[in-house]
Structures are given as C-alpha cells and as structure tokens.
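Appendix C. Worked example: Integrase catalytic domain-containing protein
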Amino acid sequence: MEKLARLYVDEIVVRHGVPLSIILGRDSRFTSRFWQSLQQSLGTSVNLSIAYHPQTDGQSERTDMLRTCILDFGGSWDKHLPLIEFSYNNSYHSSIGCAPLEALYGRKCQSLICWTEVGDNRITGPDLIQETTDKIAHIQSRLQATRSRQKSYADKRRKPLEFQVGDRVMLKVSPWKGVVRFGAKGKLAPRYAGPFEITQRIGHVAYRLRLPDELSGVHDVFHVSNLKRCLADESLIIPLEEIQVDEQLHFIEKPVEIMDHEVKRLKRSRIPIVKVRWNSKRGPEFTWEHEDHKKTKYPHLFEKVVPDNDT
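Step 2, the predicted output written as structure tokens:
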C-alpha cells in the first residue's frame, strides 16, 4: 500500500495537484483503511462505484477502445501505449468541445505531426484569466448538454423501477463464462437468486440487501438493474444453498455425472462425445460434450465405466 501511495503522489498529485474528489472501483486496496486515511489527510473525497454496474464510471471504461489501436503492433504493443494515450487525449472530444489536454492545460498541445497548428502568441494578465474562465464555462456547458443527451437516450430504454425498505427482491447472477461447450455457447441464461430483503435505499438507483452468510464476500449494495421484484410463485425461486455463486455473482456450473457416451460420425473423422448432466435447479440439464475435453478437466467423472452404445 505504501508503494501505491507513493505512485499516486508521484503520478497524480505532483502533475495535477490534489484532486477534490475521485471515483474508484471497489478493489480491496481502495477500500482499505490506509487508503481512506490517506485521501482524508489530503482532503480528497472518495466516491466508490456501485458494484456490478460499470456505467458508474463510463469515462474510464471508454479507454478500452485503445486495445483496437495496438493490435497491429504485435508483441511490442506496450511500447506504443504512451503515444496512443497522447493521441487520444490530444484529439477533439465532442462531449467537452475540445481535447482533454487543452481542457487540462488551457492550451493546445503541439503534436509530432502538426507542428504548425500551435502558435507562439503569449497571453498574460487579465486576458489569460478571461480566456481560461471562458473555456471552463464552455466545457461545463458542453458536458451538461452531453449528459442530458445521453440521459435521454438511456431513458428511452429504461423502465422506472423502485422498491421500498422491507421489500423482497431477486438478485441477478450470471453463468460462469469460462465454460466451453460442444455445439453452443452458454447453456444457461442469466438467472436470479433469492429472495433477499431490502434494508436501505442508497441514492436513487441503488439498494442495500440483507445477504446470507454464503455471500459474505460480496458487496451488499446493488444497482436497480441487478434486481427484480420477487414473484409469489415459489417454484421460480432459486435458493443460494442449491447453487454455487462466486464473489462476482457468477453462477458456477459444474458437471455432476457422465450419463452416456457416443461417437459423432463426420465425413472423415469420428469424435467421441459424452452426455453430461449439470447442476441445474430448473430441472435436468444435459449437454453433449467432447470426451477428451471433459476427461482432462474432470477425470473423476470417468472413474465409473459407462457402456458404449456402439458395442
């Protein structure tokens, strides 16, 4: 943590000053007492994002687009990241009406390509103050217009959903993405577990839930998009003790047993496949998988010999 604090001071505070507020994810390093006390001593307000809702800090998520710029560089992509970052920050952004570097430093930054675009005119005294004030007002107005436009787009697809303290809701869990299947991707669609009681409303779009001991490692505040009103039909409720959920609310699918095996006959090849039963609470779930893949990953399932239909 001391190394992280030194890096924060050297890369952020020294170059840009002490921030008034910062938005951070819920990494254990940022939620630790050391980090909180450091920011408090610097006078910085720390705002933690809502768990499982990346839209909270969409601006930083936007930088993932840099990956598309480095695919052509192969193994040396890391050497080009600084110039790609500079090019991105020195490009015009419609949301603020100028480049981020221009908004930060109050002037255009000379690039390696357009040497003649930046003049040598010097602005001093009241003129500099007036120009800076005008730029800040312009950026703020553009940001407000952009927020309003983005909100109008999102509101068209968003249904108003509100809960009260004491309501019981279902919590969304997602299938584990690392499972690869034969013939199709994703055997189970996203589903809900619960119900859980709402204990507190956080702001306008987040709620705190009373979680069981099985989810003690999961942050208990969720965006409303991850919740659904509890239905009276008990057959639709999936209790947590019947499934396995990790700290990222991914439903962990595991095969229970090998039911049968066959040989898939193609024109020029034969592929041994096995019928696998999965741990599902929606009734029996079966898929046909490659035998060699499952034998490598789950050898204990093949301890019991299953008769071959071909024999």
